Amino acid sequence: MTISIKDEQGIAGMRLAGRLASEVLDFLTPHVQAGITTNALDKLAHDYITQVQQAIPAPLNYAPNGYNPYPKSICTSINHQVCHGIPNDKALKKGDIVNIDITVIKNGWHGDTSRMFVVGDGSIAAKRLCAMTYEAMWHGIVKVKPGARLGDIGHAIQLFAEGLGFSIVREFCGHGIGQVFHEEPQVLHYGKPGTLEELRPGMTFTIEPMVNAGKKDIRETGDGWTIVTRDHSLSAQWEHTVLVTPTGYEVLTLSAGSPPLPSFVTTTSC
Ligand code: MF3
Ligand code: CO
Ligand code: CO
Questions:
Q1: Tens place of pLDDT for every residue, the chain, 270 residues?
Q2: Rounded-to-integer distance, Cα 84 and Cα 59, Å
Q3: Are 106 and 18 in contact (CB under 8 A)?
Q4: pTM value?
Q5: DSSP state of 73
Q6: Cis bond leading into 201, ω under 30°?
Q7: Distance 17 CA to ligand 2 centre (A)
Q8: Alpha carbon distance 113, 254 (integer Å)
Q9: How many whole angstroms separate alpha carbon 175 and alpha carbon 113?
Q10: How far apart are CA 266 and CA 142, in angstroms?
Q11: How would CATH label the architecture of 8-62+71-251?
Q12: Nearest Cα residue to atom 3 of ligand 1
């Protein structure tokens, strides 16, 4: 396995791309309301990325092996949709939970981040799933340091989420990221401590657990992209892009509107 190591110039590029991706979510936040369509959110994001940020929305026309080109600039995954939901003309409604996943390319570098939004007053169960999935992501992030292994990250996320009675999606994972959108390594959100690749300073990858309220099983829908839970239970996901520093981690996808840290997290960079 060859995992790219970013030098200072690459890290600077990743910091900028990461902040911009997060700022797109900040920009969209006041618009995520009952009545807006996900196509309208897609257009707002597309115009902001291309015109204000002078950047490229990485999903648009993205076509990994075996996939048709992705037709939109953002992913919007609602309720039982797990990931890769394609924006459409349907309006959001009160009680929906929505993942918005943003990837921008700036000066050739990728920043990839997603957050959950609850439309109006969500149910207690929906809000809890979103909040706990955020914590699950952070349980993985705080494991990141040189000498730790990818299995340590996956194990921490799995232990926390399954301990709450939720399940972790297996078919999709975090990924190395840099000048390529999806590169090595795969970052599983489950696993055994002390296994898999050892982390080294300069690695950049995403941590993006998909957590289901019901069973872990998923299926792909007829559009070739959207993934849903088989049992139609709610699913949540959060994503950050992180850098392995000489002594720990630096979260790259932060901005003014990033949500507060969970109580067990002391810093975004160490
Ligand atoms: N942003 C997603 C991820 O976290 C990938 C989306 S690919 C797309 O890896 F084509 F659906 F946009
Ligand atoms: Co990602
Ligand atoms: Co993403």
A1: 799 999 999 999 999 999 999 999 999 999 999 999 999 999 999 999 999 999 999 999 999 999 999 999 999 999 999 999 999 999 999 999 999 999 999 999 999 999 999 999 999 999 999 999 999 999 999 999 999 999 999 999 999 999 999 999 999 999 999 999 999 999 999 999 999 999 999 999 999 999 999 999 999 999 999 999 999 999 999 999 999 999 999 999 999 999 999 999 999 999
A2: 10
A3: no
A4: 0.99
A5: S
A6: no
A7: 13
A8: 9
A9: 12
A10: 9
A11: Alpha-Beta Complex (3.90)
A12: 112
pLDDT of residue 179: 98
Q: What is the DSSP string of 105-151?
A: EETTEEEEEEEEEE-SS--HHHHHHHHHHHHHHHHHHTT-STT-BHH
39 CA to centre of ligand 3 in angstroms:
18
In angstroms, the CA 12 to CA 192 distance is: 32
Q: Which residues of 217-268 form beta strands (DSSP E)?
A: 218-220, 227-229, 235-237, 240-244, 249-251
Give the C-alpha separation, 121 to 130, whole Å.
13
Distance CA 212, CA 129 (A): 8
Edge-to-edge strand ranges of the sheet holding 210-212: 167-168, 210-212, 235-237
Do the beta carbons of residue 250 and residue 242 sit within 8 Å? yes
Residue 2 Cα to ligand 2 middle (Å): 19
Nearest CA owner, ligand 1 atom 8: 59
Two structure tokens written together for 252: 């790259």
Sorted by sequence, the CB contacts under 8 Å of residue 147 that are 6+ apart come out as: 198, 199
